[in-house]
Amino acid sequence: MNQRPEEHDDASSIESLLPIDEHIEEGHDNEGRKVRHRGVYLLPNLFTTANLFAGFYSIMCAINGNFTVAAATVFVAMVLDGLDGRVARMTNTQSAFGAEYDSLSDMVAFGLAPAIIAYQWALSELGNVGLTIAFIYVACAALRLARFNTQIGIVDKRWFIGLASPAAAGVVAGVVWALSDNGVGAVDLPVAVIILFAILVALSGMLMVSNIKYYSFKDLDIKGRVPFVAILVVVLAFAVVFSDPPRILLLLFLVYALSGPVQYVLHLRKRKNRQQSGV
Question: Is the pTM of this model over 0.90?
Answer without folding.
Answer: no
